[in-house]
Amino acid sequence: MTTTSLDSPPRRALFRLPDFRRLWIGDTVSQAGTAVTVLALPLVAIGPLDASPFEAGLLVMCEYLGFLLLGLPAGAWVDRMRRRRVMIVGDLGRAALLATLPLAAWLGVLTLPQLYAVAFGLSVCTAFFDIAYQSHLPQLVDEERLVEANVALEATRTVTAAGGPGAGGALVAAVTAPVALAVDAVSFLVSALLLSRIRRPDPRPARAPGARLREEIAEGLRFVFRDRLLRALTLTAAVSNLCGTIGTSMLLVLLAGDLGLSPFLCGLVFTAEAVGGFLGSLLVTRISARLGEARAMCASVVAAAVLWLLALPFFHADGRYAVACLLQGLGWTAFMTFRINSVALRQRRSPAPLLGRVTATFRFVVWGCMPLGALAGGVVGEYAGVRTALWTGAVGELLAVVPLLVAVRGGAGRDRGEG
Hints:
Blueprint: H1 18-46, H2 53-78, H3 83-107, H4 112-140, H5 146-175, H6 177-195, H7 213-226, H8 228-258, H9 263-291, H10 293-311, H11 320-349, H12 355-383, H13 386-397, H14 401-418
Helix pairs in contact: 1-4, 1-5, 1-6, 1-8, 2-4, 2-7, 2-8, 2-12, 3-4, 3-6, 4-12, 5-6, 5-9, 5-11, 7-12, 8-12, 8-13, 8-14, 9-10, 9-11, 10-11, 10-13, 10-14, 12-13
């Protein structure tokens, strides 16, 4: 009797699933281009447009503002639409937005407001794409393979990202930052083409008769915040992103502005983070098996925060910079256990009809904190100094584990009481 590709295939056969392979390749190509943009977009503001720390913080805020403004309704809309189509439209929209920047630079009319507008547009497209992407993945692999599939996607994301910022730094130095952004535009076009070739049916989800958008959004919010573990995961990730963005919004201001490092050297810290994330993704299943999923996630958040805090004194324009990059990368090695397990756990605990709204609720809270963190980082950087902003964010990261730790201990206590 012949089994289908989703009937518990051997572990080694994950990449033999054609539709998952197309999703994986498309996402990998897109992430490689995005790794260039991570460096190039702020360098356009800091370099040619001479942005202040506050203006650089506003740019980072715009990069995540779409999740804050549209995150919740986006989840309800995605649950009403064909998810693969949403991803393709999101890719095409991001390609078009990025293409405007080299064109404006060539015409000599590039301005900070345009940069802000493009960054905001990218965040809107990404909000829809990521919600649809995480909701569509369980349709391509069975439940038992979700962790493996997420590990594969995160590992290849970090592999492509490893060379992206470093290569992006060299590319910026060679052809200027606006032209380097065209690379990312092309990558989104390639991603859209590959997604369009996925053959698994993508039917429009059935809607409950008379369902209203507000009621559907509220249903997703209730599901997340009434579930003890999902609520803790959301709050932990939110605190981490809020505090992390306070610091990261000022990192390139410190490196390219205050320290005067070249684009290539600025990119090395992102390369270190990506390499660390890749190594961490390879260790997720082993660490989780040894410590247990919940304890592993708690240890992951604490270890990452400590390593990022230790990195800060070493950010100088000399040999200490190598130590800072190493510690920053090790922080991401530690953090990947929380990052990957939290996604897989959320996918497992969410009913299929609610998955888009659950993902949107998570993104709204977690990513919605990032524009607030970037704005706070810009204000602190402008009036108290860039390094003060970095220290503020790093110290705050230590608090991120508290919601998860409370939930894990509370759950263990109830289990003992029931026993």
